[in-house]
Write a structure and sequence with these properties.
Blueprint (H helix, E strand, L loop, with lengths): L2 H14 L7 E3 L2 H11 L5 E3 L23 E6 L8 H10 L6 E6 L5 H7 L8 E3 L3 H10 L2 E4 L8 H8 L4 E4 L16 E2 L4 H13 L1 H14 L5 H20 L1
Parallel strand pairs: 1-2, 3-4, 3-6, 4-5, 6-7, 7-8
Helix pairs in contact: 3-7
Length: 248
C-alpha cells in the first residue's frame, strides 16, 4: 500500500547492490518493469521463470466418487489477504452453477477461520486442506478449473503448476500481479477483487466445455517455458554471457 516506501527500497537496493551487477535475474517481465520503473533506469536483466519440476504434468485422473457429479474448482496458496481467496468464495455465490460447484482451497493460513465463516452458506461445503505434493498433482488433474485470485504476485508458482498440467487457469487482472501474463485468452481474466466478474468467467467456461478443452491445449503448450530444466539452461546461458561481457 505504501508505494513511496516501495520505491525507496528499490532505489536503495539498486544504489547499494544492483548497479554493480553484470546481470539481474527477474522471474517475470512484470517485476522487471516494476523495478526499472521505480529506479528510472534500465538494467542488465533477463527474465526467466523460477520454473516448476517436470513432476507436474498432465495426467488422466478420475474424480473421486464424492465429486463425480460436481464441477471441481481449485485454488492453491496461503490463506492471506493478498491471495484474495475470499473473492472466489463470494464468486461461487453469484454463479449460476453454485449448486454443483465443489470448491477446493488447498493451503492454510491466518484467514482460514474467516474463509470458513464466509463460505457457510455455500450450497456445497468447500474443502479446506493443506495438501501434499502428490495430493495436489491429483487434484489439479481432476479439477475442471483452476482459479488464481491473488492480488499481489511476483510469479505465482502454484499457478504455473496448474498450467503445467494443462489446466484452464483463470487469473486476476491486478496491476500488482504477474499471473495475468500467463493467460492464453482474455476470457480467462477477471477484474481484480470483483466476485461478479469472476462468477461470469467461471460460468462461461463451465458452459463451454469444448472451447475449454481447446484452451487447455494452449495452456499446456505454453507450459514449456516453465519447465525447470529449460529454465536452468536459459539461466546458465545468461550467466555465461554476463561473465563474458564483463571480462571483455
Amino acid at each position: 500500500k505504501f508505494k513511496r516506501v516501495n520505491k525507496k527500497v528499490y532505489r536503495y537496493i539498486y544504489q547499494h547492490l544492483y548497479r554493480y551487477c553484470a546481470g539481474i535475474h527477474y522471474p517475470t517481465e512484470f517485476i522487471r518493469n516494476e523495478f526499472e520503473k521505480s529506479i528510472r533506469k534500465s538494467t542488465p536483466g533477463f527474465v526467466v521463470s523460477n520454473g516448476v519440476n517436470s513432476y507436474f504434468k498432465r495426467l488422466d485422473m478420475e474424480k473421486p466418487d464424492e465429486f463425480k457429479d460436481k464441477i471441481v474448482i481449485l485454488t492453491t496458496g496461503r490463506y492471506a489477504r493478498e491471495k484474495s481467496q475470499d473473492t472466489l468464495i463470494k464468486a461461487i455465490k453469484y454463479s449460476k452453477h453454485r449448486e454443483n460447484i465443489q470448491l477446493i482451497l488447498a493451503g492454510q493460513g491466518i484467514k482460514e477461520a474467516y474463509y470458513k465463516l464466509l463460505s457457510r452458506d455455500l450450497p456445497v461445503a468447500p474443502v479446506f486442506k493443506l495438501c501434499t505434493r502428490e495430493e495436489i498433482l491429483k487434484i489439479i488433474n481432476y479439477s475442471d478449473l483452476y482459479v488464481h485470485t491473488a492480488e499481489i504476485e511476483l510469479e505465482g508458482i502454484s499457478c504455473i503448476e496448474a498450467i503445467s498440467c494443462g489446466k484452464l487457469t483463470v487469473v486476476s487482472d491486478s496491476k500488482l500481479s504477474a499471473t495475468k501474463e500467463f493467460a492464453v485468452d482474455s476470457k480467462c481474466i477477471f477484474r481484480n477483487r470483483n466476485p461478479k466478474s469472476l462468477a461470469k468467467v467461471i460460468d462461461y467456461w463451465i458452459e463451454h466445455p469444448f472451447e475449454r478443452a481447446e484452451c487447455e491445449k494452449k495452456y499446456l503448450e505454453s507450459a514449456a517455458v516453465f519447465e525447470q530444466n529449460e529454465c536452468m539452461r536459459r539461466t546458465r546461458d545468461f550467466i555465461c554471457r554476463a561473465v563474458n561481457m564483463n571480462l571483455s
